[in-house]
């Protein structure tokens, strides 16, 4: 049974009158009669009793009502699904982010997408460091990434989400922790705890720039996998770290003091959402439009 046959059958089953049913279906009465006869032949069952005065459903006809409704509904859902996909309302998108430094932006975007496109599946992968997430967007293992980058490859497009500031994290019992700001040169002899960083990691590049400006090479550097571990080790007095204002507000660190850096080159760093400019489709465009409206 075809969808058009199921639809015509259901209209006739409601009207029990060929003239009224044909009018609702915007077709002539003879074509409707032929359609019903063809359906009955294909099912090898009489669906309607016809007399000169009335039309009635047979037992077989009554049995067919629910399957016919299911078929028409399934067809409508299929059409809606295709339309929703073409308008970016159905699909799956993936986003990588570093974790604590962009938790707030990821959460805000996920909440807004749940409102604007509730049938869109939004998959997020945390602990994606800047360099790694950029590579994954380039090789299309991720659709989007949020992070801080010194520069972007020409294959990528970006949306500015906000700014982040580099701060120095010191143990609270450090002699210099009583201040609110610090000159990097005063930490020339301190051990440092850092996150992994590639050539395009904004935070690690900023660390190299600030230590170079201060005229020293960091003496001992320990690399740890995430910001939570950095703050734990700093709080235990294992060293200092260059971190971000977003991390300071997101990661519990009662034993850590955060200080601004007294260096005019320590400008706020742009936080950006990036994607491949050649990979656009309606689903990705929905995310971009939502992020644009949300973050301006």
TrEMBL record:
Which terms are listed as keywords in the entry? DNA-binding, Transcription, Transcription regulation
Q: Which GO terms describe its molecular function?
A: DNA binding; DNA-binding transcription factor activity
Concerning SUPFAM superfamilies, the annotation shows: Periplasmic binding protein-like II, Winged helix' DNA-binding domain
Gene Ontology cellular component terms for the protein in this record: protein-DNA complex
Q: Which Pfam families match?
A: HTH_1, LysR_substrate
Which family is it part of?
Belongs to the LysR transcriptional regulatory family.
Q: Please tell me whether the keyword Signal is annotated for this protein.
A: no
Q: Which residues form the HTH lysR-type domain?
A: 1-58
**Which ranges of the sequence are coiled-coil?**
none
Which CDD domains does the protein's record reference?
PBP2_LTTR_aromatics_like
Q: What protein name does the entry list?
A: HTH lysR-type domain-containing protein
